[in-house]
Amino acid sequence: MSQIRMIRHAQAILALLAFGCGGADKPAAPAPQALAAAPTAPVAAPAPVPAPAPVAPVVAKPDANGIVHITGGDQMRYSATLIEVPAGQKVKIEMKNAGVLPKEVMGHNFNVLKAGSDTVAFATKAMTAKATDYVPQDALDQVIAHTKLLGPGESETIEFDLPAAGTYPYLCTFPGHVGLMNGQLIAQ
Q1: For position 92, which CATH number holds?
Q2: Can you tell me the distance from the alpha carbon of 140 to that of 119, in angstroms, rounded to the nearest whole number?
Q3: How many Cα atoms sit within 13 Å of 152 on the Cβ side?
């Protein structure tokens, strides 16, 4: 398509947008002379929007000292969505709140639950457990290990044994965080 036709085509579209959205109570504006004489070209359908690429999990593994380092911040995300540890060894996880917002509005904790636990049900129950850092005392039978609720710059290291090789869910139980702050700990 020539440049002139492309410009006229663009002008026609702009004119339709500008004049075509008037409303029933206004008379339609006359088309400018230059646009009326311009030949119309077929309008191509917009290309379909590709689906977003799946997000690859961010994997954390123990460092040389055997500690897995995890952070959570003001964006309500853990730094890793998958933790891989060797089965049969003591697990050490350091959780740090890397955010700056006050603990009362953006505190984070780290809870490892038994394999097969329902994280949404657990988090729902935890919402009312403010006095115990959002770890429900009547559901401790589902908890393998947990940190306290951490404010900005605070960290805590938990050390625990897993019952067996397998996949264990982890999550933040501060109200509303479980949707973004969750992952899987895999012992293999």
Answers
A1: 2.60.40.420
A2: 13
A3: 9
Instruction: Tell me: do 20 and 63 sit in the same domain.
Output: no
- Burial of 150-175, coded b for 16+ CB within 10 Å and e otherwise, reads bbbebebebeeebeeeeebbbbbbbe
The answer to whether residue 48 sits within a structural domain is no
CA dihedral 104→105→108→109, nearest 10 degrees, is 50
Give the model confidence (pLDDT) of 119-153 as tens digits.
999 999 999 999 999 999 999 999 999 999 999 99
Residue, of 29 and 173, whose pLDDT is higher = 173
Write out the two tokens for 31: 């088309």
Q: Same structural domain for residues 22 and 72?
A: no
Structural domain harbouring 10 = 3-37
| Dihedral Cα 117, 184, 80, 54, nearest 10 deg | -110
Between 62 and 13, the more confident residue is: 62
CA–CA distances in Å: residue 56 to residues 53, 59, 82, 95: 9, 9, 10, 21
Which neighbouring-strand residues pair with 183? 170
Q: In angstroms, rounded to a whole number, what is the distance separating the alpha carbons of residues 141 and 135?
A: 11
Contact 169, 184 (CB under 8 A): yes
